[in-house]
TrEMBL record:
CDD domains: CYCLIN_AtCycD-like_rpt2 (cd20544). One of its GO terms (biological process) is cell division. Residues 186-285 form the Cyclin C-terminal domain. It comes from Trema orientale (Charcoal tree). This is B-like cyclin. Residues 18-28 have a biased composition (Polar residues). Residues 18-39 are annotated as: Disordered. Transmembrane segments: none annotated. It holds the Pfam family Cyclin_C. Interacts with the CDC2 protein kinase to form a serine/threonine kinase holoenzyme complex also known as maturation promoting factor (MPF). The cyclin subunit imparts substrate specificity to the complex. The keyword Cytoplasm does not apply. Residues 51-182 form the Cyclin N-terminal domain.
Length: 352
């Protein structure tokens, strides 16, 4: 019997502050300074420069402007949600980086968005195959130790089993669609930038930083799972999450200073997005350390946690799909180039 099938996570989401220490961002050419504990920090000017560069780069790493409508019209909301839950479970199961979850989500969203003009009739097995491929690519790009394709495919809740050759073909499709540009700015990227520089955001106490880091990661995992937030830029999601988390630790005046520090990088329209995004995030509540999203209509509830000790493990039969039965031709090798909503806005401003 496969040993993976009966494994259960006693703690699905371990503490982000303990097992996923933020890594200082260096791709922007900023110099790092180290304190007596060996921790690296940027100067305030370097922090602002890195933040500005991230804001510019993220324009190339977001889905098409009508992506949310496409998900709704093609009944992909639930499939996307389940894919991201799979990413989160695999992160815990295989001890992957939190960044892997965000990269995999970014690849999945960009790939679906890029193919929305290809007249694809999406089937659930397609999304599951894409889910496995995106997680595999992200883990290889970020983590030093990665799970095998078979191990990923054995995660709970997967309804289909794919041959390794099928997954590899899908990986190539994704890589080609993304032009092999795997480095991207995600909400997690901004958190990596914020955390080592919290002293510039008026926070100096280590216990406060630990609590904020933990809340930030849980809140961001909930944010990328919530389809209503896909319309917001990664920077908006990250700053909104930090805004939510800092509110309980800062005085009114300190909170105002923080808001001014980060929101000063955004224009009026983006600030309006911050307000809307923050309002949605404030509806996410903490109950016994687990993040819940309560929908306004009260009909259902998203639980981003997992029972600590399930009494039973149900093994359901899965559909095995042979490689020769999988046609990936609907996914174009090089999907039509699209313009993000940001690019469209910039071109409109230039022509006016």
């Amino acid at each position: 019997m496969d040993h993976i099938s009966l494994l259960c996570d006693e703690v699905w989401l371990s503490s982000p502050a303990s097992d996923d220490t933020p890594v200082q961002m260096t791709q922007h050419g900023t110099k790092k300074r180290h304190d007596d504990n060996g921790e690296s920090h940027m100067t305030k000017e370097e922090f602002e420069q890195a933040f500005t560069i991230c804001l510019e780069e993220e324009k190339s790493h977001i889905p098409k402007h009508d992506y949310l409508q496409y998900l709704v019209s093609n009944n992909l909301i639930v499939a996307r949600f389940r894919s991201i839950q799979c990413f989160i479970k695999c992160r815990s199961r295989f001890n992957l980086s939190f960044g892997t979850v965000f990269y995999a989500t970014n690849y999945l969203d960009r790939f679906i968005s890029m193919n929305q003009y290809c007249n694809i009739e999406w089937k659930y097995w397609m999304v599951e195959l894409l889910c496995i491929a995106c997680l595999s690519i992200a883990s290889k790009f970020i983590d030093t130790t990665t799970p095998t394709l078979h191990e990923i495919n054995q995660i709970e809740d997967m309804e289909h089993l794919f041959e390794a050759s099928t997954i590899q073909r899908m990986e190539l499709k994704v890589l080609e669609a993304l032009d092999w540009r795997l480095a991207c700015n995600t909400p997690h990227s901004y958190v990596q930038l914020f955390i080592p520089n919290l002293q510039y955001l008026t926070l100096d106490h280590l216990h406060q930083q630990h609590s904020i880091i933990t809340q930030l990661f849980y809140l961001l995992l909930g944010a990328i799972s919530d389809t209503k937030l896909v319309e917001f830029r990664p920077s908006v999601i990250a700053v909104s999450a930090l805004w939510c988390c800092l509110g309980g630790f800062l005085s009114t005046s300190a909170s105002a200073n923080h808001d001014s520090c980060l929101t000063g990088f955004f224009d009026k329209e983006e600030k309006d997005d911050l307000v809307r995004c923050h309002k949605i995030m404030m509806e996410m509540h903490w109950i016994n350390g687990t993040l819940y999203k309560l929908e306004a209509d009260g009909e259902y509830q998203y639980n981003y946690g997992c029972p600590s000790s399930p009494t039973t493990v149900l093994l359901k039969e899965r559909n095995s799909i042979r490689d020769f039965n999988v046609d990936l031709s609907p996914f174009q090798k090089h999907p039509p180039r699209y313009k993000s909503c940001i690019k469209i806005k910039e071109e409109a401003e230039e022509s006016s």
